[in-house]
Design goal:
The protein is α+β, with helices and mostly antiparallel strands. The protein has two domains: 4-156, Beta-Lactamase; 172-273, Sandwich (Immunoglobulin-like), CATH 2.60.40. Helices cover 26% and strands 29% of the residues. The chain is built from eight helices and 13 strands. Strands 2-1-5-4-3 form a five-stranded antiparallel beta sheet.
Length: 294
């Protein structure tokens, strides 16, 4: 799978590297620095670069490059998901706006995270709630130490986003639906494109391992009820993405979102609506042409 992970600064210098296989070396960083960073191609070229029989898959955070090197035929979506999860884990430990200095000041922590999140080039556990149980460095507060068998189950089991034994004096669930309207309008006032993007934010404070259900009306529900002779208005959703705690099989079957939620704040889903958007405002453009170039 992945042969090496490197984190480079904007000058192309290696800040941190971890080699998981012996088929690549740190010399490959020189090729990446010369052909990508020095050539200033990182912002205009695809995030996959093939140099000397080695594939470089990279993404940026602030002025740093997170690069994965491999010589095998890997799944690029898996590699990029690991890089994004790696940045998310570092944000949890070092802060949302971690930079080069904070990286250099926490070398031991970052090497521990590299060893725990990947084994022999294969991504392993990237759940912050599980990592914080046995990595006590950084600003993530360690939780109560679980039993060894519970820790093994959380690392290898299907539910790694929530640990067992959570207790709250009062069971509470907070749901926020945040939507934004995006509008593209011409100089004559006609609407060229309009869409609504939204996300469902939740904050759960529940005891144990509760199973929650979240109902949703969309186009598939309308079609089923119309075929049965019952018509009901709903929302036609073009696409939606869910948190990994959602059971997609049940969503495909009855269009209900069933999940065991993580403890605390998390994003349950994102969605987008393109058709029948009722705009909450009206724009009247006033365009005055002062010449052929203005």
């Amino acid at each position: 799978m992945i042969s090496m992970i490197m984190i480079l600064n904007q000058k192309g210098e290696i800040m941190i590297s971890r080699q998981y296989r012996d088929d690549v070396s740190r010399v490959a960083a020189d090729s990446f620095r010369l052909q990508v960073i020095a050539a200033k191609e990182a912002s205009s070229q695809p995030p996959v670069k093939r140099i000397e029989d080695c594939s470089f898959l990279y993404t940026r955070h602030r002025n740093m490059y997170f690069v994965a090197l491999t010589k095998s035929n890997v799944n690029p979506a898996l590699v990029f998901e690991y890089l994004f999860q790696k940045i998310r884990v570092l944000k949890a430990y070092l802060g949302e706006e971690f930079d080069e200095n904070s990286m250099r000041n926490n070398m031991t922590l970052i090497y521990e995270l590299m060893d725990e999140t990947m084994d022999f080039g294969y991504p392993q556990n990237c759940a912050v709630d599980v990592l914080r149980l046995y990595i006590n460095l950084g600003n993530v507060k360690p939780q109560d130490e679980p039993e060894p068998q519970q820790l093994t189950k959380q690392i290898t089991g299907a539910i790694d986003w929530r640990r067992e034994g959570i207790r709250h004096k009062k069971n509470e669930v907070y749901i926020d639906v945040l939507e934004s309207v995006n509008l593209l309008i011409s100089s004559t006032g006609s609407i060229l494109r309009s869409e609504v993007t939204g996300r469902v934010q939740m904050n759960t404070k529940l005891t144990g391992m509760p199973e929650c259900k979240f109902g949703l009306n969309d186009k598939l529900v309308i079609e089923k009820e119309t075929a049965a002779g019952r018509k009901k208005s709903g929302v036609e959703i073009d696409d939606c993405t869910f948190h990994r705690c959602v059971r997609l099989g049940k969503f495909d079957a009855d269009r209900t979102i069933t999940f065991i939620p993580p403890d605390g704040e998390f994003e349950l889903m994102r969605y987008r609506v393109n058709d029948n958007v009722n705009l909450p405002f009206r724009l009247i453009p006033a365009v005055q042409e002062e010449g052929q170039t203005k």
